[in-house]
Amino acid sequence: MKDLIAAALSGLCVVHCLTLPILLAVGSSGLLLGVFSSEWFHYLMLLPISVLLAWSLPGGWCVHHNKTPFILGLSGFLLLVVALFAGHDAELPLSVAGGLLLATAHLRNRVLLQRSQETPHAAH
Fold first, then answer.
1. What does the pLDDT look like over 15-48, one tens digit per residue?
2. Cα separation of 45 and 110, whole Å?
3. pTM of the prediction?
C-alpha cells in the first residue's frame, strides 16, 4: 500500500511540475497557486518523499533482493534535490524526470513484493 501511495504522490508531483507553468503563463493567480509555486513548498515536499523512500524501498529490497527499485528511487530523489538548486530552465525537466523515476521505483517495488509473496520460499 505504501508503494501505491508513494507512486501516486510522485505522479501528483509530475502533474504539479507540468501544470504550474501553464497556469502561471495563462495568468491564473490566487493563494493556492502562490503556495504551490513557492520555494518553501518544494523544500517541504522533500520530507514526505524522503520518508516514503526510506520506509518502502530498503524494506522491499530485504524481501525481494532486487536493487532496481532502490537505485531508481534514489536517482529520482537526487534529481529532485538537484532541481531545487538548478537554474530555472533545468528545474522542470529535472523535477519531472525525478518524479517519474520515483513513481517507477515504487511501482516496480510493489510488483516485486507481490511476486515474492506468490513464490513459495524454500525451507531453510
1. 767 666 665 555 555 545 555 556 777 788 888 8
2. 22
3. 0.73
